[in-house]
Amino acid sequence: MPELSNDVASQRQGYWRKNLQYLAILLVIWFVVSYGCAILFVDYLDQWEMAGFNLGFWYAQQGAMYVFVVLIFVYVWLMNRLDRKFDVREDDEPSAAADTDAEVSS
Amino acid sequence: MMFAALSIKEWTAIIVLVTFALYIGIAWWSRAGSTGEFYVAAKSVSPWANGAATAADWMSAASFLSMAGIISFAGRDGCRYLMGWTGGYVLLALLLAPYLRKFGRFTVPDFVGERYYSQAARVVAVVCAIFVSFTYVAGQMRGVGVVFSRFLDVSVTLGVIIGMAIVLTYAVLGGMKGITYTQVAQYCVLIFAFMVPAIFISFTLTGNVIPQFGFGADLVSEPGVSLLEKLDGLHQDLGFEKFTSGKKSTVDMFCITAALMVGTAGLPHVIIRFFTVKKVRDARLSAGIALLFIALLYTTAPAVAAFARTNLLQEIPGKAYAELPTWFQTWENTDMLAWVDKDGDGKVKYGPGKPFEKKPKQLGETVRVGDKDVEKRGPHGQRLWANKLTGNDNELYIDRDIMVLANPEMAGLAPWVIALVAAGGLAAALSTAAGLLLVISTAISHDLMKKVIMPKINDKQELLFARLAAVVAVVVAGLFGIYPPGFVAEVVAFAFGLAASSFFPIIVLGIFWKRMNREGAIAGMVCGILFTGCYIIYFRFPQLVEFLGMTPLKDEASNWLWGISPEGIGTLGMVLNFAVAIIVSLSTAPPPEKIQHLVGSIRVPRG
Q: What is the pTM of this model?
């Protein structure tokens, strides 16, 4: 493993910090819709109705799952943007060799 | 119109044969030539194909056949399975998949072994991976046998053997590469088979073709009354709790959902799929696509549950036996429906509680009519059962799986739609079985043989070991399917609990905390597994507890730790694993420099 220059190291740190920020925000939303809306506060939310469903029931059997799907696609979009910004996107550049070592690694 | 005259059985035979020929054809086209192809499809799978393959890999016979049935009996509480088995993908996509893909090896034990620079940790991981996968695969082979016996009148044993032969052909021939492309085909078959009846039934009941919306819409037969109001009303009339209300305690719901989510993210056959794509960003994207494909079925399932429950409650309770629809007798023949006339009025009375003890067993007595022996029947022409009756008023036994299997018949759909359900159930079971068998075979050939026992073997020999291990695994799984150990249902809780309390914490810590070391990982895994395992054994295997000279407690809420059932205990096991791993890591030496660099490099896609 080659020693990293200070530039690369601080750039990596910036990338990682931003990544952790995104994770924190997305996981809070994940927790709130699933454990919050659909389990802890489900009976409270049931007092409202939406499209024929009690709201808490809808979160438990439909809404939480829709939010999960959206969360992953938002994460994909955020990270692809971040990869470009910090120039760590894997493409057909010479430095992307890390990918091809799988066949020989065993 | 030559097809118009075909029976359900003929349709089933045709559709099943066509799909099987398709799977074998794909396997031959995509057979593997190297260990790289066998283990990870040469890391050349597109994110869309991987998404579909992951969805099929993940959705088992249980998702396809049982889940809607479970929800139609559990009502709102069924959401623990819906969220538990989808929410884990968020954890997988955000916390595991991209980093494990960057790490770029073949298996989960591979990561554990390298990251924690320890053969002991690798072996513990191998044992966990094999145990989790076997508990899971046993149910799949049984599922194949059951679908065959229900729809094609062959014995369960023959059904399992046919299933084994099919899986053997494409898993042994094609490895991961063959499995991936057959799983893509299987996803298409199973989602089509699930959606078609759901759309028809949604339209018939509510006039809305999208089941997710029809679920909340008004009934065609009673304008102004929504389906869920109707269902709540039917439930209350019969003495049940409302369908849309919860019965389980909040703490148990919380823990079970968490254990299933974290367990999902820690299951090796799911994680391994993210090793097969070309790039880190493909791993992220394919997790999203996989969840999208899974959510298509999972958001439909609760709608199917409500439709089937409504149809059932409108058609059966209060009717005389002779007036019941014909599908009642059809499914009564398979012991999945049973009626006992407790009050002798000839009408079916349905309510809470079990009608009799254990699973239905036909009395099987005959009487002589003319010169023939015919089955002895009750005064209303009903079948007689040998089971001991319970004290409550309920007279009707309903197997939960029937809510999917018989749903198209209940709704009066065409024979080809009913046949599709059989093909879909087989696709779901076979695709999951194949994925699990691959985990078992790679854990043995790669992690045990190549990395621990015989490091000198070359690629060709390792590939041979992988194929042999797959053959042995299929045979063992088939035997489990033919002679199911009585504890299959109990061990499923085990599979998720173990995955949650063993792999997940140490993989996450391995990526997100550079200071995490070998001692912490081993201590964490061992404590997590021991705690979770002992708790489940204590409540679910009372004979074993007695054998060890202890007095078992009954498996009920008042005896559980903080009201957490054995199904949900994996959550506490996971917390314990995290805590122990962190404390032990901090009080022992940090990992070598080399490992800290490795962790640094898996955190970025390039470099």
A: 0.87
